[in-house]
Amino acid sequence: MVRNKTVVTVISKVAERPAAKDACLVVIYGLELGKKFSLETPSIIIGRSSKADIQIDQESVSRNHAKIVNTGKQILIRDLGSTNGTYVNDELIDEHVLQDREFIKIGRTIFKFLTGGNVEAAYHEEIYRLTTDDGLTQIKNRRYLMEALEAELRRAQRYARDVSLIMFDIDHFKRINDTYGHLAGDYVLKHLATVIKQRIRREDLFARFGGEEFSILLPEIAHANAMIFAEKIRALIERTEFKFEDSEIPVRISIGVASLDKGRFGDKEEEGRQVDISGFMKHADERLYAAKNGGRNRVIG
Questions:
Q1: Which of 23, 77, 109, 260 is a Cys-bridge partner for 115, taking CB atoms 3.0 to 4.6 Å apart?
Q2: What is the pLDDT of residues 199-211, one digit of tens each?
């Protein structure tokens, strides 16, 4: 298959300024998470080869995949005819002048480019961000969700407020990876997160729970409205186009919904019981598995 590449050319006054002495790449998704690579030398090769300056030992990465060039005035990235391409901000490129905080994807590894007056401070800021955000989807991670959920449950039970939790995962995600490849699987995860993120309220919390599983925490939303919202999300994903390179990928999700109405479970046998975070999540998880066992692409609450 001949790969048509999108050539991204950046022409701006920023690009003509001398490159900062301290510029680096930070791994925000993949192995060696948080590792920093300095870009002070004139030329750096990224690839699978053991001789590469930045080695990424993945099948989807070519032996000599891409090259970082520091001209003294600008820093650019150049694809070296790789099999799977080099991406900057999700655009397939041949050559691109890098700007501060842009994302570079090579194989299944994502780097963030940092440059400017205080790279060390920006690096430490990025390391902190990795403790709360998922590097691939750019939504919150499991650790952040668990802390927020614990705090929200305390508030709901103390003040008799509604709170709901949606848990969902992608139906037959392993089949997507096996059929279209792991790069396509990563694309599906990221595009799904982008689509849903645009539909939630500012006070809601959307997080990647792990793998292909996601959660949405809905403060002050009762069960009936949470079910309506969950069905809207299910239908949204069903009609969204997922197209990676030349392949259209059918994507469906199964959803489980748990709620505390006025700070309590709605089930009579559990009426009045104090609910901890594990019990609440178990409630949502059981409904998710009921949705999957019931035929998938549905909401159970």
A1: 23
A2: 999 999 999 999 9
